[in-house]
């Protein structure tokens, strides 16, 4: 019973919070993607550095980030994507697969 009261109280608090903060939250949507990207990048590096206090970890993250940007620019397609699609096509829907398994 206590859990239901806690969930009800939480829902009421969320509604009250959203009633007063909707205007502020809608202004967040006006942030440019460049500024948002820089903020996410900065916080990512702070998080990686804070784990072990190692610049090497930051260099590894930067290397994989540059590698990802290069793959995106050359429009690299994921080879596993087609393999997974083939497996899904061969197996059929999950319902059919479970029916086949039941016939064994």
Can you walk through the features of this model?
The protein is an all-alpha fold and 104 residues long. It has a domain at 1-30. The chain is 85% helix and 0% strand. The protein is built from 5 helices and no strands. The chain has helices spanning 2-28, 33-52, 55-73, 79-91, 94-102. The longest helix is centred in the first third of the chain and has 27 residues, at 2-28. The two termini are 46 Å apart.
The succession of helices and strands, N to C, reads HHHHH
> Are there runs of 5+ residues with pLDDT below 50, and where?
none
Shape: extended
Number of strands: 0
Measured between the Cα atoms of the first and last residue, the distance is 46 Å
Task: Bin the strand percentage.
Answer: under 5%
Helicity level, as a percent range? over 70%
The major pleated sheet works out as: none
Q: Can you give the mean pLDDT?
A: 83
Structural class: mainly alpha
Total number of helices: 5
The radius of gyration is 24 Å
Task: Fill in the keyword field for this structure.
104 residues; mainly alpha; 5 helices
Annotate the secondary structure layout.
Layout: H1 2-28, H2 33-52, H3 55-73, H4 79-91, H5 94-102
Summarize the structure.
The protein has 104 residues and is an all-alpha fold.
